[in-house]
Design a protein that fits this description.
- The protein has a domain of 269 residues.
- 64% of the residues lie in helices and 3% in strands.
- The protein contains 14 helices and four strands.
- A hairpin with a 3-residue loop joins strand 3 and strand 4.
- Helix 10 runs antiparallel to helix 13.
- The longest helix is centred in the first third of the chain and has 28 residues.
Length: 394
């Protein structure tokens, strides 16, 4: 565990320091998130802080490659190089969008290209185990398709949740930390190859988020922008693929390990994925009523974090509530792994949390309130899925 903690500390410290540089550079270059009626922040704020995360990620990877504990990761696998190249591609896509706002199709094309780079270097899903369906092995024809779809799903999910100061960075830090603990346990149990880059990517992802948070909590002095959101999404997509998609055995006596390769990503990234689903349904219904022609490109203020604020929670409290929800989900998943009991509680616990969330937040699937905070769907044409939701700049 010590080498991973060292990399965690390095990536956090480097991100914290590099963010000062990224912020000043954004101010000088005019990369500023302006105030509008679609955004929560009330003052122009520099964005593209994700560049600091990327530089810290590169530094952490270089240092890790020089540590003998990670010799197998860098010498016996092409995965680290694939992730670095894929991260570079996705960083360019996000940075270009932060500077001049690219179209949704162009951004999706960039994500597809990044996912293709990952696949070419072995960062892909070979097989996984589905609850009640047994072992599924992906054919060579399906592997690139699943890889690209997974990258697009996770990057857009993280981008979509980037709506309040510190929200995306906090949720991804919790998710990445939980995933690291899970993947490290798999390694200790002999279920994960020693050359897997998954645990290392998860701990670096957690570190860069922790280092960025001091600059990003309310009131944020810099936003990560699409640059950071897409970059974090690619790291999480890569780590989940090489852990869940490369695990073919189960741990004797642990039912959870049988389902975890598919289950874990959906649980610890449950907040942004749920948000993505609600947004798609809401905008599909809006189009069906003739209120807009672009289902996935009309921005609104109907996300979970906005609804918490409408209920009377302040900016900070809404963020903390969603952090807490992600922490509880992660705890439910990790408990059986470390205490070897409680597998049967996980489905019930997660179902109860889902019902509670649905009841309390009352997702507006019918778009009834779109005329208020989230109206004018046809007028607001900022790209959401594929181009990022710019309702705020968290």
């Amino acid at each position: 565990m010590t080498p991973y903690l060292a990399i965690l500390g390095l990536s956090a410290a480097a991100t914290f320091l590099f963010t000062f540089v990224a912020r000043s550079t954004a101010v000088r270059c005019g990369v500023i998130e302006r105030v509008s009626d679609r955004k929560v922040h009330d003052r122009p704020t520099p964005t593209a802080g994700g560049t600091a995360m990327y530089v810290a990620f590169l530094l952490a990877m270089v240092v890790a490659s020089r540590m003998h504990q990670f010799h197998d990761v860098f010498q016996r696998s092409t995965e680290p190089l694939g992730v670095v190249l894929g991260a570079t591609v996705i960083l360019g896509v996000g940075l270009l969008d932060d500077i001049r706002e690219v179209s949704a199709p162009a951004k999706v094309a960039g994500e597809v290209f990044a996912g293709s780079v990952l696949y070419l270097f072995g960062v892909t899903m070979f097989y996984f185990q589905v609850p009640f369906a047994g072992f599924i092995s992906l054919s060579a024809d399906l592997e690139p398709l699943i890889t690209v779809l997974w990258v697009c799903l996770i990057t857009n999910a993280i981008n979509l949740i980037d709506g309040l100061d510190g929200l995306a960075a906090g949720i991804v830090a919790i998710a990445a930390g939980a995933f690291f603990l899970y993947s490290h346990k798999l390694s200790q149990s002999g279920l994960l190859p020693t050359e897997s880059v998954g645990p290392l990517l998860a701990v670096i992802c957690c570190g860069v988020c922790l280092g960025f948070l001091p600059h990003n909590v309310h009131r944020a002095r810099v936003f990560m922008g699409d640059t950071g959101a897409l970059f974090l999404g690619l790291l999480m997509a890569s780590s989940t693929m090489v852990v869940g998609g490369h695990t073919s055995d189960t741990f004797s006596g642990q039912k959870f390990f049988f389902f975890a390769p598919v289950f874990i990503p959906f649980v610890i990234l449950g907040v942004p994925m749920l948000d993505t689903g609600f947004a798609i349904v809401r905008r599909t219904l809006k189009r069906a009523r003739g209120e807009g022609t672009k289902v996935l490109e009309a921005g609104d203020k109907e996300h979970l974090h906005h609804r918490l604020m409408e209920m009377g929670h302040g900016h900070r409290r809404a963020v903390v509530i969603l952090w807490a929800w992600t922490t509880i989900l992660s705890g439910l998943v990790l408990y059986p792994i470390y205490f070897k009991r409680g597998n049967e509680v996980i489905p019930v616990g997660i179902a109860a949390l889902a019902v509670l969330l649905f009841t309390v937040l009352r997702p507006r699937l019918d778009g009834a309130a779109d005329g208020g905070a989230g109206g004018n769907g046809a007028r607001r044409e900022d790209a959401l899925v594929g181009a990022g939701d710019r309702d705020d700049g968290g």
